[in-house]
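$ run holo --ligand "MRU" --emit tokens
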Amino acid sequence: MSGTAGVLARLPRTVEWRDGDLYLLDQTRLPHEVVVERQDSADQVFSAIRTLKVRGAPAIGVAAAYGLCVALRPFRSGTVAAFHDAIEREAAHLDAARPTAVNLGWALRRMQRRAAATKAAAAEELFAALVDEAVRIHEEDQRLCLGIGLAGAPLIAASSGVLTHCNAGALCATGIGTATAPMYVAHERGVAFRVYADETRPLLQGARLTAWELQAAGLDVTVITDSMAASTMAAGLVDLVVTGADRVARNGDAANKIGTLGLAILARHFGIPFYIAAPSSTLDFDCLTGADIPIEQRAPDEVLGFAGVRTAPAGAKARNPAFDVTPHALIAGIITERGIVRAPFDTGLSALFGRDNSE
Ligand code: MRU
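-- output --
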């Protein structure tokens, strides 16, 4: 198999709904172990999202949609009214798993709207409609990734160097990723280029996940520590920076993995174009600016050590914001499934998606 379909064929599925059950790839064990876990309860799905077994904005959204179905299974034999009550309760529970990636709430709100629009005589019919909606969200995610790939691939020139941060790859979604999608399409078209994958402290999504999937697809990938980005740019090795996003505000400000803001500032200093790749499911028109985006604060232990091994002295304090916000003034363009939006982002995003990105 070749092409972008071949990329997915070489990787385990991040999210799978099979025979009425939800399976999630445990990304905390990659790249050394490939473990897929069946999700038997809402609490298990909640915990999988919170502990980053499933992570990356689009994958979280798809997992939450199916996770709501898992949560609602016990209510299929009850009344329609009890089923509707359970939808509200379980959706609110899952939505609280992580705050920054808007895809989580976006997918759950879509599920709630589908339930509200379904005239059902029995809870079982409502359940079937919700599974259908989750499958639609899942299939759509794969199309959005491909659209981003097609829109962004022309940005990657032959013999160039592309730097990315965290994992905005196939492992963050259910298709060919967001930031990696242009890379996979360019690679499929025969463009030879180098990728620099930031290690991405504290949880190493770049070293563990991005390097793993790009290598599996045959791309030329080099891991650098986050603190090497400046010298890699200064050495003239980087022509383009592309990262994903967890939430894009109406004015184009974009939240992404901690460290992205520093890269954007560096890219501006060195005159290197900095792009965000984001599907419409990551746009949040209710956030007027990045200041409205909630930033997840994670446990200090993730910074004070790694993989259960303490590296900082006992008693050391740590800050651990999981994301930062890159102001739109530092962003050359936002690569969406409908094309690349450039400044002014407010009018550009509205022109492509209207006020409503909810499908
Ligand atoms: O904490 P994570 O691993 O969920 O963070 C993921 C990122 O920051 C990705 O870059 C982002 O979700 C974009 S993925 C399309």
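-- notes --
The chain has a mean pLDDT of 96.
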